[in-house]
Structures are given as C-alpha cells and as structure tokens.
Amino acid sequence: MTVTRVLERDTLDTVAARIRSHVVDMCAGPEGGHLGGAFSCADVLAALYFSVLNVDPRRPEDPDRDRFLLSKGHAAVGLYATLAERGFFPVAELAGYGRPGSRLMGHPVRAVPGVEMPTGSLGHGLALGCGFALAARYAGRTSRSFVLLGDGELQEGSVWEAAIAAASLRLDRLVAVVDRNGLQLTGSTESISPMEPLADRWRSFGWAVRDVDGHDPDRLADHLDAAPWEPGKPSVLIARTVKGQGLPFLAGRSASHYVTLSPRNHARAVRALRDMEVAG
After folding, report:
1. Is residue 1 domain-resident?
2. Domain total for the chain?
3. Predicted pLDDT at 5
4. How far apart are CA 163 and CA 207, in angstroms?
5. pTM value?
C-alpha cells in the first residue's frame, strides 16, 4: 500500500522543524517536557504522519486506518505537535499542554484524537502493536501497525518477548522503529546495557531489519512506506538519531531528557531552530 503524501508545498524537513518548534514552546511551559527524545524522533514522526500512515484526521476511528503507537510515551510532546500539525486537533491547543484541565498530559491518553492507546510504561508498546496487527489479520484488513520504541526501552524483557511472538506469528504488517539516540536518563545506553550489534540482534529474532539515518525524513518515508520488506517477517527500522537534535546547547546530552526551558533558554532554542531552518 502506498499512501499519497499529504504535503503540497512544505517538505518533510519543514514539517519536522515545526514539530520541534512546538516542542520547544511546550517545554517552556511550567511543566516542562521530554524535549531530547521528542527532538530525536521528530523526523520519524514527520515521515510517518505526512507520508506513510493511512490515517484521516476527520475520521480518527476509521476501522481501516493504520495504527501508530508511541511506545516511548514520555516523548508525548512530539506526538502532540505532530497530531496538531496533521489536523487531529487545533495547533492552538498545544499552548495548554500540562495545564489543569488540558487533555494533553505528560504521556499520551485516548482522550487525545489520534492516540490509539495510553503509553509510557516502557516495554508494552510492541506487544500492543502485535495485538493490533493480529486483530487486523483476523478482520481481513490490510492496515499496518507501527510502533516507535526508545533504545533504552529495549532493556525491557517484554520487548523481546513481543519480538519473538511477532516473528513466530509472521506479523509482516507490523513495523517497529527504534529511536537509536544512544542516551537514556542516566547516561549512554551502551555504558548501561550494551546492545550493539543491534541490527543483528533483531535479525536473530526473525525480523527484517534496516539501519538508517534517523534525521533524513524523506529516506525514512521511503523505507517505511515499503514495509513489509520480507514476506512473513515483521520489519524494524533502526533510526540513528541525536537526542536534542538541532539545539547545540542540548544535543547529544542526557541533560536534554527532561527540561523546563527558562525564558533565556527558550529564546536560545528558538534562535537555534531558526538558524537550522535557514542553513537547511
């Protein structure tokens, strides 16, 4: 299935830049947010929602839609920014993120249009994706299920139980994306729990694997839209990313994991994103 891109004038890079801009504004609010991980996956989200996923903001419950699960639910600010840009709810609602009475909470909930399941308890998303893929098969639908995981999340044993199940059930309409930014809250993933060679690990579990630059949304879209890559095998895209991508004072640092941007740092971030857009 090939989904026609919804973009007419903008590029996927432009959309990803707007997603990051919204994230910066939300993280400048009183509650702050998980900026680093939202920035590292912004290009993945732009590729999915504006080039790959068969979804319609006017019909968020369409039974034939593709499903997307943000297993790394702490990056909710990135998902909210993407859903708003895609038209699931007004962009103006982002300004209320984390405020009393807002449905935009620290982790995604079903009250938000376009959110399939509440997530944030790491290690559960891939199993949920298996369930969606299996249900689609039983219902005779051709829809695909996409799951975005954090690389630190791969330390959860439930991820690999789901990986085994997906391969044994031949769920080739299931696609996982690993946001491989190499960092988690307390340091680098490789110093805490080494997982390289990561591609070989997924292959050993029976998955079709591709390992790509996670900050090239056009290439990401091409790879993701082509899934399934091998008949009878679930697909996993390892997206090599940088935590806090685009902000020189936070990029590649664990300190970007959760931030509440001061007015000064908010202004620095806005300038950095503007410079990044001009350079691009």
Report:
1. no
2. 1
3. 61
4. 8
5. 0.96
How many other CB atoms are there within 10 angstroms of residue 98's CB atom? 17
CATH number for the domain spanning 58: value is 3.40.50.970
Task: Assess if residue 106 is contained within a domain.
Answer: yes
Helix (H) / strand (E) element for 268: namely helix 263-279
| Closest C-alpha to 55, from 41, 43, 69 | 69
Q: Does a structural domain hold residue 133?
A: yes
The C-alpha atoms of residue 11 and residue 221 are separated, in whole angstroms, by 12
- Helix/strand/coil for 166: helix
For the chain, how big is the Rg over CA atoms in Å?
18
Give the C-alpha separation, 174 to 162, whole Å: 11
Sole residue written with tokens 């009250």: 111
Q: Are 202 and 210 in contact (CB under 8 A)?
A: no
Look up the domain containing 260 and give its range: 12-279
Q: What is the mean pLDDT of each run of 10 residues along the chain (280 residues)?
A: 60 97 97 97 98 97 98 98 98 97 97 96 97 98 98 98 98 98 96 97 98 98 98 98 97 97 98 87
